[in-house]
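User: Hello! I'm new to structural biology and keep hearing that structure can be predicted from sequence alone. Could you demonstrate with DUF3775 domain-containing protein? Please show me the input and the output so I can see what each looks like.

Assistant: Of course. The first part below is the input, the amino acid sequence of DUF3775 domain-containing protein. The second part is the output, the predicted structure written as tokens.
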Amino acid sequence: MANIPDDDDVDLGISLETVATVVDHARVVQGKEETDPEQEDEDPDSEAALLQDTDDDMTEESLVDFVNGLNEDEQASLIALAWTGRGDYDASEWAEALRLAHERNAGGGAGEYLVGMELVGDLIAEGVAAFGLSIEDVER
């Protein structure tokens, strides 16, 4: 495990707990797939059944609502973390990524923007890892 930097070393502008919540939710939502009802397996615990969307699951809409409910700094941090995880920026360019994320999000819509990214949960987790941090160790 990487050493976790002191708070003085990096300020992501968002708590790791919030990031972990977004990553978990995004992984659930983007891991689901729509299936033809005729293909559904009779066993509700089968892999096919677990990958189907149901009304009581976390939804894309609930993820968008959660992200859009965060403050502007937290939303910009999530965008910048996704960009960092995607390789657009590295940890040394955090201030620039964060500034551009604020500009990108000036009109709002961070939730929709992030949900539109393929594997956004993994991108955000990789962005956190670029700072030597891990959301895997965050208690949920």
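User: So the tokens describe the shape?

Assistant: Right, they're a compact way of writing down the 3D structure. Reading them back into a model, for example: The chain has one domain: 16-32+42-129.
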